[in-house]
What does this fold into?
Amino acid sequence: MKFTKLFAAGATVLVSASVLAACGSKNNSSSSAKKSINWEESAEIPTMDLSKATDATSFNQLNNVLEGIYRLGKDNKVENALATNTKVSNDGKTWTFTLRNSKWSDGSPLTAKDFVYSWRRTVDPKTGSQYAYLFEGIHNATKISANKAPVNSLGVKAEGKNKLVVNLDKRIPYFKLLMGFPLFYPQQQKAVEKYGSKYGTASKYMAYNGPFTQTGWTGSNLSWKLKKNPNYWDKNAVKLDSVNYSVQKTPSTAYNLYQSNKIDAVALDAQQTKNLKHQNGYTVRPTASTFYLQYNQKNKDLQNANLRRAISLAINRKALGSALGGSNKPANSFTAQGLTKVEDTDFAAKTADTDYSKYDPAEAKKLFKKALQELGKKNVSVSILSDDTDAGQKTTETLQSQIEENLKGIKVSVANVPFKTRLSRSTNGNFDMVVTGWSADFADPISFDDLMTSKNAQNNGKWSNSQYDKLVADSKTTSNDEQRFSDLEKAEKILLKDQGITPLYYKTEAWMVRPSIKGIVYNAAGANYNFKEAYVSGN
It folds into this structure.
């Protein structure tokens, strides 16, 4: 997902873990008797409509205010949520879920039909979901998204109130993990139809079924609250009364709030990371995410592979990581490090690009000279788009300086805009180069490699390679895992040889987390925080 990324769901924003307490409170420390914590996001919420969400900020909210068939516990362990029983046919193509009795936040019953409605709405081309491709493999999903089959032909049906049957066209190795991802959660048809175009644009235009409900988000403001849902089926397991959110874009401000006990955790910048590494509460979190440059193929200069390779070789990734802080590592693959092991080897190591995804100014100059000859130009100008966060600004400043210093004859301009604006400009192809972060939605490399297929909605730069497309498609049809990973490895090597995208760094966040905060489940794949069983020790 693009990072607010993470990323989301694809930004250069830190997904931080800090929190701003309500103004005027007599005791702002979360160690008080109040069963609440104060949490920070570093970017605005783009949407609460799960059919339209693409980023980590949105999905982190959805993961706590909605619930699906499964919930992902520690280390992505699949746990029953609304499902009480799962039966799978011998060929792996028919899944039957028995659902528990549960309610929406308005007290009305939640049934299997709510899943059917939600899934149909997401794959319906009229909805315009950028994530509809994740339904591929569910019967007719791809045809429906391409407007070649009716929406009601999707391979999902309700048998009575509590039985959901899903029919697949092929075995999906990671299907259970998908069922724990918010994209596959139910939606209340009554709410969607009642609110129409306003659905998911503010807290009040939603129906909830998760551990919490959301209040106070107007669609553009920088603070809101999660409140314990009294109609949640497992409400006795929910220990917090509220999670108070605020958006903090400046690490120094956030850390000052942490020091004064007004926030409970804070993502650290470069200098803070160095200074606080040995302090109590210092925490390092992997994010299963890769930040990278995406090139717009509508730009004729950037269509030139040697120009893209030269830009990549001109970037000192280690210096970039140091400027950003945390424990970021230079990236030379698209798939994030530590996501999946194949034959006891990290998949990212298997696909690592040693030719162009490294720092080599001398080779960069040679390829840049060659690119100018091929383009028939003496110089080129490009712009880099990113977020207006501290991390986003440091990223564009560093890249601008490095590229211009190592490639004489290239002029780089930068634009740092709010996360929501950056997502919109990326989606609409309104950029030359954009700094994007992607966090795996589930622990499998297909979560990355699918993105760069020619028709994927997340492929905002429109890079295209027919052999790449074929290999990714082939990986989805084989029942042999060894062959599947081989296809994906070959595909990713094609992408990196052509520098269809330029990997920058693997995101790892350094935090200070107040020791009194316990029970938060964090999974790197999906970069999801699960507050269901979180609590403040001493309460």
Observations:
- The longest strand covers residues 282-295.
- The first helix runs from residue 56 to 65.
- The CA atoms of residues 3 and 17 lie 14 Å apart.
- The chain is about 25% helix and 20% strand.
